[in-house]
């Protein structure tokens, strides 16, 4: 499925998974806004159900469409294109990033299993691990970016390691975690390495080539890219993706045809958007780094040579991405004055859209993450997270400069 003709993913992004000849010559995929598909005969209906639910399912057989919670024609193009981007055998799309994460956990974790997860990690993910999954008997232990392979091994103890879950770079601090190191620990325990690649997108990081088994995205962010859809995606080996699709139709984390269609449209411009956003962010980070009212700018373009993070960056990432976290000199009051003074940059949560947005992780993240945990990962009342968009960079810098003068 991925890169069949040896073509580059940005070439595949405009055509893979859609054959105009099968759709009245429609150059773009039509939206199949239907929940049911009519069978040509009762025998065909029986056969389609056998292929989806039969003892050998899920398999390689072409399956006819039955019902849009199970599968729909609009899922094929984004799944083919994402697999090409991530250099994976296959991909599956979901209702949201959390839908993708939940489907992974429910498919591959059982009571008594141990998950080692990178910290910080998106609050929704850590809340799920330490809340509902804990109640279901799954054990989770966090580790920080300075942990070594030996540290991970000693955290396993006598427990049954099932998964090492990495969010790299991490939300919101841009910490980097070493995928190859995690893969070498996981391989001696028959465990999976799962990487949340939301922050860099496959334009800058392809975790599978570094040893990850599964790569996931909140497609709401860069993959969707226009802040007009909520979606998720997972890429990986054929068998794992088939197992995820089976869970997807059991628990109903399947995206609607319209959402999958919007994602297909967005993937055509993924590289263009991410390149421009990264260029802009690198300029903005350099500006902030020099500003007297700003402390501790965290953008991957500013990593210091000779540090462990820089070494991981050089091996694992093709570019620094467009997420910047920095501290305003002061606390919540100064941060709010800054946020309220911005005109071009929108005050909103989420990230990865064409428009620049700023948020305040101290107050605008799930309340289930305790204050001590936020401080320990480097989030304070003065911390601001910026997702840089595709606007003219001089307008962005002028807006930030004006807002900083209001602090
Ligand atoms: C890194 C990361 N992973 C996963 C998620 C969850 O994605 P969604 O909001 O699409 O469920 C988010 C959301 O902000 C995120 O930032």
Describe it for me?
With 407 residues, the protein is of the alpha/beta class. It has 16 helices and 12 strands. The strands form 2 sheets. The protein has a 7-stranded mixed β-sheet with strand order 1-7-6-5-4-2-3, with helices on both faces. Helix 3 (76-86) packs across helix 11 and helix 4 (97-108) crosses helix 10. It is globular and about 75 Å long. Pyridoxal-5'-phosphate is lined by residues 96-98, 122, 124, 167, 171, 196, 198, 218, 220, 230, 232, 350.
Q: Would you spell out the secondary-structure blueprint of this structure?
A:
Blueprint: H1 9-12, H2 42-53, H3 76-86, E1 90-94, H4 97-108, E2 113-118, H5 123-130, H6 132-135, E3 139-143, H7 149-156, E4 160-167, H8 179-187, E5 192-196, H9 201-204, E6 214-218, E7 232-236, H10 238-251, H11 257-267, H12 270-290, E8 294-298, H13 308-316, E9 323-328, H14 332-341, E10 346-347, E11 357-359, H15 371-376, E12 383-387, H16 393-405
Parallel strand pairs: 2-3, 2-4, 4-5, 5-6, 10-11
Antiparallel strand pairs: 1-7, 6-7, 8-9, 9-12, 11-12
Helix pairs in contact: 3-11, 4-10, 14-16
Taking Cα atoms only, what radius of gyration do you get, to the nearest Å? 22 Å
The overall pLDDT average reads: 95
Structural class: alpha/beta
Strand order of the largest sheet: 1-7-6-5-4-2-3
Bound molecules: pyridoxal-5'-phosphate
Termini Cα gap: 52 Å
> What is the count of helical runs?
16
Total E-strand runs: 12
Taking the sheet with the most strands, its summary is: 7 strands, mixed
Please mark out the parts with pLDDT under 50 across 5 or more consecutive residues, or reply none: none
H/E order of the elements? HHHEHEHHEHEHEHEEHHHEHEHEEHEH
Strand content: 5-15%
State the helical fraction: 25-40%
Described by the principal axes of the CA atoms, the overall outline is globular
